[in-house]
Amino acid sequence: MRLVRLITTIAIATSALFTVPLVAQLVPSAIPSWNPRILLLYVGESSDPQCKLFQDICRSSELAEMRVIFRPQPRNDYYDTFVREYGLARSSTWALAVVEPGITVSYRCLLQGTELPLVSDIQNALDRGGIKSVTRLLRDFLKTHPDNIDVRAQLLQVLREVAENATQHSMGLKTETALSEQQQARDFYSGTALFDTTSFKDKMLESEQDASIWGPYAQVLDAIFNSGDWQMLHPGWVLNHTPLEICSPTMIQIYTRHLPKIEAYLVENPHDARYWLLYGWMVSITKHSSVRSLFDRILPTPWNDLNSSWPNPEVLSLLVAEERARENWGYIAEMLMSNWPVRRQVILNYTAFSPSEESAKATSNRLLDSAWQNHVKPLIESLIKSNRAPDAETVILDMAKNSTYGNIQRLAAGLALNLGRQDLQYKWLALETPEKNKVDMDAFLARLFPTPPAPRIVVTNLEESANQQINKILRDSRLAVWGLSPVRLNQNTELPVFVRQLLPDTPVQIGGTKPNQKMPELVRRFARWPVDETFWGLFYDNTMLADGSGLPTVEKLVTELELARVQTFANALRHHISQYPSNFTAKERLLRELKRIAELKVKEKFGEAAGVDFTLMLTEEEDRDIWGEFALLYVQTFPFFMEHGRPVADLYEFENNGWTSNYFMHSEIMKDLAREFLPRAKACIERRPTAKFLWYAWAALSDLNGKMQFKDLRESLAPLPLHNHTDIPGVDVMRGLVQRCWIRSDWQGIIDVVEWYWEIMQERGQFHQHGWQVYLSPLLEAYLHLDKSREANELISVWSYTPAWPHIKQSAVDLAKKCGKENLGERWERL
User: Fold this and answer.
1) Buried/exposed code over 487-499 (b: 16+ C-beta within 10 A; e: otherwise)
2) Which pLDDT score, from 0 to 100, does residue 175 have?
3) What global pTM score does this model have?
């Protein structure tokens, strides 16, 4: 029995279970996983001339496909451990080894020696050792599971690495790893294209070479584009690779053929930054298409999030790069200047809040450099070249309002000089800038009431006892359609850092908690309210629509919003969808907004029992009113979401997307939909088991159709060749499922979700407090509620031998007593 064997092992050698083997610490890739890791170990320093020869061996196409990892190992204090773990001879200067997964990591030496090995020697040793290449593993899996998106994506990644490696070697290219995402952002507007291909100019593979090197990758990629599955892939290679496809006529042809699909997608989903990066990548390689032409075809989706303003930085970078190459400075100036009000808000929100004066200065310099390179420099350059110097001065003065950007005049003057405008250099150095940290009411209001505009209610001097009352007012479903957000300005509320920087005579407090009374004073001065009286104001687009003493009523706020004709976010989206019915992004945003409003109405109806008590059901009329429109849109979007959808970042969170809700349980409409869509969701997970958002959508539907069948679903999935056991469905998904089950007192559901993971934790000796709190404590509670005392005792027996036991002992004892198992609690207390 695994448990008995494990407890015995712990008792004999507790420390061995909690210490990762030394070699595993030195070799990061040696942590147990589903597939073995192949290592070519060189005994010596990485600076040794011979070390590069071993590196070149690993970079050969044959070994790149096997994913052989090169590791130098000096003859230092750890060398004896390497000799022991790998079974090396002291005379050996290199070794080919395999790190294999299991309860403990095992190491197998396949080949070693003193002379430089041949690639064929290593290949033969791997064959004798029964080690398949990664591509062979993946292709073998796809023979029986051809629709698995995750494995096809992994195969693409491996084939790409092999093709890139072979291209560099065959053409003698010396390429650097592509800039990180942050570094790319810094260079957004500065080059001739988002991805620089000038270093590969006039370098092209011969047709036979090209077919051999890029053919396998092109074949798989072409099939994914033709099937439509490309929309489910994350184009992450554009962030950490170089555009070597420009050397491949085959890849240029593939990208040219499929570029219109990317363009059509972006017209319908213009805010997807990842696919704008992919579009820039493909345009940089093919030299086809016009970014401006595509941009002119797009009507941006209505958005209520400042960070999703249009055009986004990725779009601007492509537009500016293209128009810079044409020296169309007027267009660049107009585009960037029209975008400046939003960029200005973002830049002015950059704030240094470091714990020391020295690091604060370094942070300020870094923020200034980022703002200058990313936004201000290209804007001022285009304004100078298009003879719009007064606008450039506006930008300089805007920046100078924040003390963090004290060098902005010098930078702008230097740029003017470099562009041959010495007159502007002298003028800008002599500009009279605003007093540092002086109140800028426009900037203050812009940050308090963001763009795009959204209604806000501001309350000053709000008594603590009235907090619940204002919360109740704002949760009223009659106001919910506007998404009214509160801003509470109490005398005892410390200001956010970004506001403090705008206030006069107010030093930035690092981690301080002292109250600051300036913020209420600013708003009071703007609105002309009494000093020490509770007052409210309804603001929209930097305008006060109404105000009054005390607290407003729901009826008053609704009346004022209607009189001002403030459009709801949902109505803006409905109008956009009527014009662009294929815009998936707009539909997803509307679905999320309808869900938010529906959930508020359900909470009004059922109070604290909402989302918990399955017996509470809406009437047919209530159900139609609350969930009717949502359900119609759900039917339109959910199939696409499951079968062609992309994992938008905020969809990783269970509650932050339109397809999942804890409140579906009260709706017969949603229960009917669950019976229809649950089998399709299961089928999609089988194709894409690592997609978290699919698991969340499945979980939201599964308990509407009876008991959640997590265990059955997980056991039906084929093990993926390159994944750990715990990768599917992933700890984040499990955490969400455990929480859902716990809220509903679904104890058997918790056991189904956690028990298999607990077995893996035991195999790996992973006993830590976090794992206890998130997974094992709910599992123990489930055992106790279902009178599974034997399982509960076995779980505690294992934990009692771990270093974590003193920290979790009391919580286990308290849990036993809470569940009416005092005898167990007393027994565990003695352990």
Assistant:
1) eebbeeeebeebb
2) 58
3) 0.79
